[in-house]
Design goal:
single chain; 335 residues; alpha/beta; Isopropylmalate Dehydrogenase; 2 domains; 11 helices; 40% helix
Length: 335
Amino acid sequence: MTQTITVIRGDGIGPEIMDATLHVLDTMQLGLQYEEADAGLVALEKHGELLPQATMDSIRKNRVALKSPLTTPVGEGFSSINVELRKRFDLYANVRPAKSFPNTKTRFGSDVDLITVRENTEGAYIGEGQELSADGETAVLTQKVTRRGSERIVRYAFDMARKIGRKKVTVVHKANILKSTSGLFLKTARKVAEEYPEIECEEMIVDACCMRLVMYPESFDVIVTTNLFGDIISDLCAGLVGGLGLAPGANIGSDAAIFEAVHGTAPDIAGQGKANPCALLLGAAQMLDHLGLPDKATRLREAIVATLEAKDSLTPDLGGSGNTMSFAKAIASRV
């Protein structure tokens, strides 16, 4: 296989974890070619804009991108570069797995293995219709949910569950109060669920879901929900398995897909070799699944687990004395 992917090295610790990730992928001899593109502060310094047209063209051409964390400067440009990318490429499905790993700091041992599927393009999170009154006393935000957006994200979740052998999809909502927006999402979800009789469909109000996640995370399989709820729930789930350093994310649309580490740029440790590359490596595993290489994705995940079990060259956040690249090399030696 020969496949060209767009590589966005990002800001802060981004270049370090990207170098580590590409080292492991190169060891796997997958035939991947890399086309580098800039975004974030690096792009602003080099090209005078946060999201250059050349970067957009590269993603549109290659249809697959691997992205490190980006910084969106406060007070200028987009509210979020990530949100802007999702809008421009209609990356409607945000897929965030949360799975327990050995030798990580967590309360739940090996009991967590769930996936949050979050609608990515509408709802309160997008920030449409924001207004502040002239006297600064009243703020207004418009929240829009569509039947089309709800149907395609719920269908994505059920199709994914069917494909990978998951048994239950939990539809998370607040339709008891938000009867228009969340109500439309729930009604649409119920209709879609009827087409998948072999998969259990569970409905849960978002506050009850959060409580149950921290008490009985093993009771969840796949969660599907709207944008803002999904943003909160997916970070909660990352906390169940040791934090954002182990949290990958996929943003998937009909014509493009971007895979990433969902944590921030961590400028306080940038350039020090302390950054844990696991989140981006796990994002790369999601990318391999998307490219039709599930066996390779499994090998990569298994190598990460084996390295954690062996406590081989782990980064300081995992209790080790290794660095970003030594950790990556230890994973590469097992892949």
